[in-house]
Write a structure and sequence with these properties.
Blueprint lengths: L1 H22 L8 H15 L7 H17 L11 H23 L22 H18 L4 H16 L1 E8 L9 E2 L5 E3 L2 E3 L11 E7 L2 E10 L7 H20 L5
Antiparallel strand pairs: 1-6, 2-3, 3-4, 5-6
Helix pairs in contact: 1-2, 1-3, 2-3, 2-4, 2-5, 3-4, 4-5, 4-7, 5-6, 5-7, 6-7
């Protein structure tokens, strides 16, 4: 079984790396964002179909190949573009998220040998999970292409609505007025008036909640999320939403208006 795992991990790493290498002669005519989106799709499709660690191997290989072959200076792991850094981080996040999903497909306490012999036919990642990853990839592409911060923020807000099943989402730029809504923290916990709770177990507030956007240790703004009703949000969706907020912070950091 270990031999099969090594083969699966090797194949998962070789496919995105091979694609990045084969397409490298097209660097002058193909946008980096397009290549990054294809690499994310490969990692998302290969990882869940193989061994648990295949997603991590694919994400690492894709990020390394992208840095080495598609970011300046070519042939070096140094990255001068913050947009390319965001894309590389996205590739790694895809691998880790899919690895965690693969781990949870095995029932706690059940020996692996007791699984059906057809375990290699593990179902692919649900369309919902792939959609979350593609949303993150799309925003990373916006940043890599140098889109204005305002457009990136609008795209993130739209992604938040789809991701968290919201009625509406808007971005408010600092300075911010006082608010009574709970805040979604970096830990994934909701906080209001000193009380914390898990939105995955207890649910959100019917009055909505806020996601702070922080850059250089300072709050640059917040996303105001208006919910349809009190509802639970899965841990996967929370992590994806916080990743989108980080991308919004990066877009603000790169904005010429912020120096």
């Amino acid at each position: 079984m270990r031999g099969r795992a090594w083969v699966a991990n090797g194949a998962a790493a070789a496919v995105p790396a091979g694609l990045a290498l084969a397409s490298s002669p097209l660097r002058t005519s193909v946008p980096n964002a397009a290549v990054a989106a294809v690499l994310v799709g490969l990692v998302a499709s290969i990882g869940p179909a193989a061994h648990r660690w295949a997603a991590v191997a694919g994400g690492l290989a894709a990020a390394a190949a992208y840095d080495l072959l598609w970011t300046r200076p070519y042939g070096s792991f140094q990255i001068h573009s913050a947009g390319d850094i965001a894309t590389s981080v996205t590739l790694l996040v895809v691998g880790v998220v899919l690895s965690e999903r693969g781990r949870r497909t095995v029932a706690p306490g059940r020996p692996r040998r007791a699984e059906p012999r057809r375990r290699w036919r593990r179902a692919p990642a649900p369309p919902d999970a792939v959609a979350q990853l593609l949303t993150i990839s799309r925003v990373a592409g916006d940043i890599a292409e140098g889109d204005p911060a305002g457009l990136v923020l609008l795209d993130v807000a739209r992604g938040m609505v789809d991701l968290l099943k919201l009625r509406d989402c808007r971005f408010e730029l600092a300075p911010l007025a006082p608010s009574e809504r709970p805040t979604l923290q970096r830990s994934g916990m909701m906080l209001k008036r000193g009380t914390e709770w898990s939105p995955a177990r207890i649910g959100t507030s019917a009055d909505g909640f806020e996601i702070p956007v922080t850059a250089h240790g300072e709050v640059e703004g917040r996303f105001v999320c208006i919910t349809r009703s009190r509802q639970k949000i899965s841990d996967d969706r929370i992590r994806a939403a916080l990743t989108l907020a980080d991308q919004a912070a990066l877009a603000l950091r790169l904005s010429p208006e912020n120096g």
